[in-house]
Predict the 3D structure of the following.
Amino acid sequence: MMGDLVLVPKKYRCLSGSGLKILAIVTMIIDHIGATFPRSTASVVLHIGQKRLMLYTVLRFIGRLSFPIYAFLLVEGFLHTHDRERYGIRLAVFAVLSELPWNLLHADAWRYGTQNVFFTLLLGYLGLCLIEKIQKEGGKNPRTIFFLILTFAVASMLKADYGSSGYGFILMLYLLRAQPLFQAVVGACFLTSRWQAGLAFFPIGLYNGERGFIRGKVVSVLFYAIYPVHMLILYWIKKNTIGY
C-alpha cells in the first residue's frame, strides 16, 4: 500500500520535533542572512568549469529547507495540541508582532508590500481546522466549505510570504500525512518556484514522532519569538554597517 512506503525506515529515524525545530531555525536564519546581505555574500565558493558557485546561492539554497519544515511542524502541532484555540491565537499574535520587523528588514519602512510568513502559517492552520470540520461533517455543510475557499482567497490576495502556494502546501501535508512517500513526491513538486525546498523531506523523513527537549509554554513562545527578534537583529546590523 502507498501508506507503507516511506522515505526512511523507522529504525533510522533519529530526529525529534525539537531537532526539526532547531534545523528550521538555523536554515531560516541562513536564508535571511543571504537575502539581507547579498553584496556581502557575493564571493565565489566553488568554480565548476566556466560556472561559479556563489556564497549567496549556497545560503539561499540551504534556506529553502526552512519553510517546509515549519509547515510540517505546524501540521504536527495541529494534530497534537490540547488547545486549538490557544494555538491559533499564538500564531495570530506573532503574525502581528513580526510584521514591523519584516517591513523594516525588507524595506526600512513601517509598511511593505508583502506580509511575513506567520500570516501564511496562520491561514494554513485555519485551513486545517476547516478541513477537519468538513471531514467530520461529511462535506455536507456548504458554510464550512465556503470558509475554506475564503481562507485560500485571503492567502492569495494577502501577499504573505509563500502565499497561496504555502497555504496549499500546508493542507497537502495534512491530507497526505498517512502516505509519507507520496507526500514527499507531491511536496517536492508543489513549491515549483523554490524547488530546493523539496530537499526538506529528507530531514522530515528522519522524524521519529517524539516531541524532544523543547517543551513547555515559555520555550514554545521563545521558538516563535526567534522569528521577529532575528529580523530586528539583522536589520540593525544592516542599518549600521552597509545601510540601505
Observations:
- The chain has one domain: 2-241.
